[in-house]
User: What shape does this take?
Amino acid sequence: MTSSARPLLNRRLAEFGTTVFAEMSALALRTGAINLGQGFPDTDGPEEVREAAVRALRDGRGNQYPPGPGVPELRTAVAAHQQRRYGLSHDPDTEVLVTAGATEAIAAALLALVEPGDEVIALEPYYDSYAACIAMAGGTRVPVTLRPREGRFRLDLDELRDAVTDRTRLLLINTPHNPTGTVLTREELASIAELAVERDLLVVTDEVYEHLVFDDAEHVPLATFPGMRDRTVTISSAGKTYSFTGWKVGWITAAPPLVTAVRSAKQYLTYVSAGPFQYAVAEALALPESYFTDLRTDMRAKRDVLASGLEEAGLTVYRPSGTYFITADIRPLGETDGIAFCRALPERAGVVAIPTAVFYDHQDMGAPFVRFAFCKKRPVLEEAARRLKNAR
Ligand SMILES: *Cc1c(COP(=O)(O)O)cnc(C)c1O
Assistant: This one.
């Protein structure tokens, strides 16, 4: 221990000392409440994908350091997926990089592309690692707030335009969006793309929920818009799509100079990871279309169970078009402080949720919103829905 008065945690990270997830998970454990706070599934992904991992382990594939960019089988499978689904063609050797989950991809992209003093625009509320990674890169985050209007959280394009300055380096976009469940529309994405081209900005886009879109919503990668292919780093991951969040297999697709830049940072973070799992995810990416359709159908039904429960409990629900989260407004219950509400909810109703305020810089704007995860078994969600009637 140092005896000086200087804090141990450096200034860049001082505001990120603890996360609300730890507090809420501890509360869930102590009270026996149903944990709809943290977003991980309570059922593992497909048996055949798990078996593929076992086979790779047994056959000695990936037990030693895999190649820095990722095993060729996975890079080829990622490129094939992008081509098949979105018509995006990527060279597996120069335009795909495997990472330790999307988390490392985000960190490596920001550490590689952001110079101290650069401004990074992120949609608020934002995924919690964005703020910390921008800070680690020495950048300044500039939040643009998604505002609830007519049933969904929307991006105000004028506000986005006004947020761009001469110091803006990149736009950090997330669609389908955690925590609001918004899927940016083709029109919104086209405007983001136009702005990026006009102001010559890089774009890092987190698309880990690309397969979790419901009803009429459609996921369109930003990289497909005119002028975007060469300025966009597209991030995805196996965690959410295949319900293997513990495997931490993610990837980026981008033009060669961007992949090279991101790889320069990535090689000193983990270097490589998850060898045998990379082979298994290569097989997962080649699953028939029915896998993705069934995943969506199952998640949509779960969404509806939880959404109805929350509505019956009296909250205003923003029924998500994507992701496995529901953001709800607690004001109809006469409550205004989501943090206090979430601290009381386990005792009151036996359910744990996350106050969305922690994902905002403008905490006042996020104060009345609470996030619930619905990637849980049907009976768990049904029981949560029953219990939530005691939330008043
Ligand atoms: C879960 C999540 C991630 C992290 O993905 P990993 O592959 O588990 O690292 C990144 N971004 C968003 C928006 C997420 O919800």
In short: The chain has 14 helices and 15 strands.
